[in-house]
């Protein structure tokens, strides 16, 4: 039954970006707990291989993998037509890329998403589009004097979907290329809904964390690369290197467990009457820390799950220019207001920051250990 007591009918979902972190967890949820079918579109399927084979799996036949790149594949519209709902997860969403690959970032998050929106609108197909909490940019609080009493007022820093402005840095701060592209595609989707009747839901994730997040360089990703903050820190811990705190680690973030977040997405999928036309923050305001506090907590959690002692110097400070390159800027604080999603879908997250870090680091430690073991077992050439 849906939230209004009506039977939920099985649907076919076209999931673009199904092979990524969020897509893999969403596919697992759909296969194990629902009767829905999934057309899984992505360039890679490593993170969902366990769902695709063997044929004896209980959901065999309900998930089909289609290897394609939405940039230039004529099959895209046909696959969207075959489905009742399209979920678009495809994006370049790694901060290290925003000011070093700004063109790729803008094309990936705006230009490449245009055909998806167009095909859904023209064929009367429902769309759930994944945006980002970065569309909010900086808080009003960050522009107030340090000693202003207004800094304590949540109205100046809690981010609301229907009220908060989107404040970005100057044009030469190319770090905002991602947020700007995401905001523009949001506005286009909203306009399609207003002018052409597109049924849509926009999701703004606030740092979703869990197993299979990002990559371990050289193990399940490229040898060189800078993933997002939590994966960056976990990679340092795995290699017994100090955690690098950019500009002192003073930025504040909230983190939500991927399994909690996927519950919210399933509610959107199965309650279109409550979700259509809405933008939803999906995060956990109770799990807020500075990046420095996150590093300290992760060091403690990793010591527990690995049995290894902490380094004598667990963290080092680096400048954003040194770490990310020229053109970097950042948002100061990201706390989601949960009023709309709670009212429409009755959703609230419940996993603490410690618990989600323990789950994630346990997975990362096991994956890393297995990969090292395999590499050592390989015969060497004479």
UniProtKB/TrEMBL annotation:
<keyword id="KW-0963">Cytoplasm</keyword>
<dbReference type="InterPro" id="IPR050177">
    <property type="entry name" value="Lipid_A_modif_metabolic_enz"/>
</dbReference>
<dbReference type="InterPro" id="IPR045869">
    <property type="entry name" value="Arna-like_SDR_e"/>
</dbReference>
<dbReference type="GO" id="GO:0033352">
    <property type="term" value="P:UDP-D-apiose biosynthetic process"/>
</dbReference>
<keyword id="KW-0520">NAD</keyword>
<dbReference type="Pfam" id="PF01370">
    <property type="entry name" value="Epimerase"/>
</dbReference>
<dbReference type="GO" id="GO:0102765">
    <property type="term" value="F:UDP-D-apiose synthase activity"/>
</dbReference>
<keyword id="KW-0456">Lyase</keyword>
<comment type="similarity">
    <text>Belongs to the NAD(P)-dependent epimerase/dehydratase family.</text>
</comment>
<dbReference type="GO" id="GO:0048040">
    <property type="term" value="F:UDP-glucuronate decarboxylase activity"/>
</dbReference>
<dbReference type="GO" id="GO:0071555">
    <property type="term" value="P:cell wall organization"/>
</dbReference>
<dbReference type="GO" id="GO:0042802">
    <property type="term" value="F:identical protein binding"/>
</dbReference>
<keyword id="KW-0961">Cell wall biogenesis/degradation</keyword>
<dbReference type="InterPro" id="IPR001509">
    <property type="entry name" value="Epimerase_deHydtase"/>
</dbReference>
<protein>
    <recommendedName>
        <fullName>UDP-glucuronate decarboxylase</fullName>
        <ecNumber>4.1.1.35</ecNumber>
    </recommendedName>
</protein>
<dbReference type="InterPro" id="IPR036291">
    <property type="entry name" value="NAD(P)-bd_dom_sf"/>
</dbReference>
<feature type="domain" description="NAD-dependent epimerase/dehydratase">
    <location>
        <begin position="13"/>
        <end position="283"/>
    </location>
</feature>
<dbReference type="GO" id="GO:0005737">
    <property type="term" value="C:cytoplasm"/>
</dbReference>
<dbReference type="GO" id="GO:0046982">
    <property type="term" value="F:protein heterodimerization activity"/>
</dbReference>
